[in-house]
Amino acid sequence: MILDLFAGPGGWSRALQVLGRRDVGLEWDPWACKTRAAAGQLTIQTDVAAYPAWPFAGRTHGLIASPPCQAWSMAGKRLGLLDQPLVHQAVTDLAAGQDTREKLLTACRDERSLLAAEPMRYLYALHQVGEPDWVAMEEVPDVLPLWQQYAAILRRWGFSVWTGILNSADYGVPQTRRRAILLASRVRTAQPPAPTHARVHEPDSLFGPGRARWVSMAEALGWGATDRPVPTVCAGGGPGGGPEPFPSGSRKTLSDARERGTWKPQSTLILQSRREGAGWAARHGTRDNRPADAPAPTFTAEAHRWSWSLRSNNQANATIRRAGEPAGTLFFGHRANECTWVAEPASPTPQDADAAVVPEPIRITAREAGILQTFPADYPWAGNKGQQFSQIGNAVPPLLAGHLLAPHLGAHLNPDDFTLAA
């Protein structure tokens, strides 16, 4: 079998399905387990830290692990960085067959920190019977030193190991998501997959095949290659399950109206002068002059005047990328981490800058976020909006996972098999 620790909603599993394989996932979150079940993936609903490793000994071909990243992520409090010495100690002890997790956990600032040491507990048990043949692990970039510790141990056990940081956009994912990767094998030289994409298109040459330009959000979502699409108007809601800005079914109604040329604004927002101030009001408009009972604004027939971008969160230093570019790293978890589509004049003019009708920001949908993670448009996300967004933000992009796994499986990866927008 292929054992998938912290399997989540199935990023690795989706890649294996495309490659004609299956894994057994260990996952505790009930909504991620429901998503996996609906996607046809095998799952044991359990706490990885509490489940015994011995049942898998003698039957495991490959091991996959993506420990929860909240303790280490830029989106969280990053207490895992303070706990690093304790995690390194846990890995050292587990690699020697000594379980000191309970003692070390009492000293941790974040109880999730030690989850990054759990793969070693399974690896030690499997190593006693000469398994697994290969290992693939993924985490946020700050975990790279820990992966390097794993690598030193695995090399002593006879593995070829590679560790490093990979950018998902270099492998066709419409998102510049950087991750620390560990690849190990007993039967082949471990090395990263060759990038297929680059920031700028690279033609074929005498030195090898070229690379396509990074995939943009617009292309992935089926908007075309332009950076001036009108995003799907939808009942977005927020990760916390907040009120929907548009009533159910309005997406198709507004789309049809735009095509017929009868699209009329229900209300508008005024973009304040850039010369008079900065901040959210200047960039995204204001509700100050809008009646409390006014309907949510739609878009005018002058939508071609607007250039759409995705704002990664509500914080002042949020990453903002035009639709004609890949997204920044998608992460969710609380209101400050909401991703929204925001509009600006496509070709600023004095009139645009002073008093232009600007569409209101629109929250990204789970379907759109899933596509930007390279899940198919009809992936069966379970739970409310908050539960769905949490799964999506924590998942491994299946297309990246496919590139990492294909060499271990002796399988050919066809990126076209990872269909995105329907």
Quick summary of this structure?
This protein has 422 residues and is of the alpha/beta class. Helix content is 27%, strand content 14%.
Structure description:
Strand 2, helix 2 and strand 3 (42-45) form a beta-alpha-beta unit. With 422 residues, the chain is of the alpha/beta class. 46% of the residues are buried. It folds into 2 domains: 2-210 and 396-417, Rossmann fold (3-Layer(aba) Sandwich); 218-372, no CATH class. The radius of gyration is 23 Å and the shape is globular. It has 14 helices and 13 strands. The strands form 3 sheets. A 7-stranded mixed beta sheet has the order 3-2-1-4-5-7-6, sandwiched between helices. A 4-stranded antiparallel beta sheet has the order 11-10-12-13, with no helix packed on it.
Instruction: Indicate how many domains the architecture comprises.
Output: 2
How helix-rich are the residues, as a percent range? Answer: 25-40%
Compressed to H and E, one letter per element, the order equals EHEHEEHHHHEHEEEEHHHEEEHEHHH
Name the CATH superfamily assignment of the largest domain. Answer: Vaccinia Virus protein VP39
Number of strands: 13
CATH topology of the largest domain: Rossmann fold
Portion in beta strands: 5-15%
Number of separate helices: 14
Radius of gyration: 23 Å
Strand order of the largest sheet: 3-2-1-4-5-7-6
Round the mean pLDDT to the nearest integer and report it. 81
Shape: globular
Which class do the helix and strand fractions yield?
alpha/beta
Q: Which regions contain 5 or more consecutive residues with pLDDT less than 50?
A: 225-229, 232-301
The largest β sheet comes out as: 7 strands, mixed
- State the CATH class of the largest domain: Alpha Beta
